[in-house]
Design a protein that fits this description.
single chain; 95 residues; globular
């Protein structure tokens, strides 16, 4: 299955929404393409980078991770006990 190609305007809007969601007002933006200190573990042309720079893939992966956390009782107990998930679930998605 090939990559899904969206119209440029739609892709731009999705990227803007994802960026606003992942970098709330008052927080510093993180440029993952230029890690501070050491070079990245994986080179920029790798499959990992192609996936990670796609905001839709990150959003779907984040939602999936949260669902999996809540599906396993021991993990769910740890999440509820050691995070602010109950009071601010959206903040948990930003992590």
């Amino acid at each position: 299955m090939g990559a899904i190609i969206l119209p440029r305007l739609v892709q731009s809007r999705i990227e803007t929404i994802a960026s606003d969601f992942l970098t709330p007002k008052g927080m510093l933006a993180i440029d993952f393409s230029r890690p501070p200190g050491e070079a990245a573990l994986i080179y920029p042309g790798s499959v990992s980078w192609r996936i990670f720079k796609n905001p839709i893939a990150l959003f779907v992966g984040g939602i999936t991770a949260v669902l999996l956390e809540l599906a396993e009782p021991r993990v769910r107990a740890g999440v509820c006990k050691h995070t602010n998930f109950r009071s601010d679930p959206v903040d948990r998605l930003r992590c």
